[in-house]
Design brief:
Radius of gyration: 21 Å
Number of domains: 2
CATH architecture of the largest domain: 3-Layer(aba) Sandwich
Distance between the termini: 55 Å
Helix content: 25-40%
Order of helices and strands: EEEHHHEHEHHEHEEEHEEEHHEEHEEEH
CATH superfamily of the largest domain: Type I PLP-dependent aspartate aminotransferase-like (Major domain)
CATH topology of the largest domain: Aspartate Aminotransferase, domain 2
Number of strands: 17
Low-confidence stretches: none
CATH class of the largest domain: Alpha Beta
Oligomer: single chain
Bound molecules: pyridoxal-5'-phosphate
Mean pLDDT: 97
Strand order of the largest sheet: 1-2-3-15
Shape: globular
Structural class: alpha/beta
Amino acid sequence: MITPVLPTYARVDLEFERGEGPYLIAADGTRYLDFLSGIGVSSFGHGHPQLLDALVTQAGKLWHTSNVFRIPGQETLATRLIDATFADTVFFTNSGAEAVECALKMCRKYHHDTGHPERYRIITFDGAFHGRTLATIAAGGKEKLLGGFGPPMEGYDQVPLGDLNAVRAAITPETAGLLIEPIQGEGGIRVVERAYLEGLRALADEHELLLIFDEIQCGMGRTGKLFAYEWTDITPDIMPIAKAIGGGFPLGACLATENAAVGMVPGTHGSTYGGNPLAMAVGNAALDIILEDGFLEQVRDTANFLNQQLGMILERYSGVIEEVRSIGMMIGLKCKVPNTDLINALRARGMLTVGGAENVVRWLPPLIITKDHVRDAIEILDQACADLGVEAKTG
Ligand SMILES: *Cc1c(COP(=O)(O)O)cnc(C)c1O
């Protein structure tokens, strides 16, 4: 008999009653160090007082009106995102996939409205993940996501990640844009070379394509900069974001330059909930926290410490962990044992993590963790590796 909840998830048999900063607490009182943050969402930990206050205060005033009317929180948050980035305009959504959808529609509409309706194809990269709607699974290109759902939506051409010549070869007179995650999350924390991203910008400029960076997982401070593109010398034309921007409240956004957004006139796109007053209250509060003086410096500092410590674990347990892939607090432990073995061993020791492709265990801790939390995490990792029965090197 089918379960009351559509059984689309392979869930861990564990549930939580409350959260406190970087901890999740089960009904029996067991505390877990939450190093997956709801997959890069709860970046400010659980129950952050500023987010809580923003949500509760707004909840007492007004939840929802409709995009039929002006929503002041949208105007504030959009303006602040624009001031902090390359963008000139913002569309608000409820999720990451919808933010990518907006980006894809915008890209096609741009070419349509600038005299090239034949340009609608988007080049994507192997290992990509862009969401679970029909368009975003076509963009992701993985058989695992596409299988059984009929012919994939037309217009996506996938190339190997890291090969600029492959991109060049894939560009045709029908190509409209390039869509890439500057760091692949689901793909196993594959950090894309800065020079490669800069090469894509050059190709986009040469061929009049729009460059779309999916920063849904790597954005909002995850890498130690507000957005990952800031580690390069270039900017995208369109950037879908989500996950941490709502700190756990469903919120996404699609940022764009004025040029890229030229076709998005009244009536071309919309969302019932997108950017409603509750979401905007939380989104603005999340941005307050991340833009506070010293917040991102602290993230980089703690992340450096964490990565140093991971280097030591890698040396000690080279039989368990093959490679540490990381930028800031976006960390992938590529395993020699099945990644689920390490995830289970960590959980048994009180720490929550999540898998990724390429046999990787992902660590996406809340950005608010301190060096003490790092020490605890490293201690747990040390024990979990030992539990897996792979001998530690004694020197
Ligand atoms: C999570 C994610 C998405 C999809 O976001 P949803 O909110 O699940 O729709 C898209 N792209 C990337 C890079 C992601 O990590």
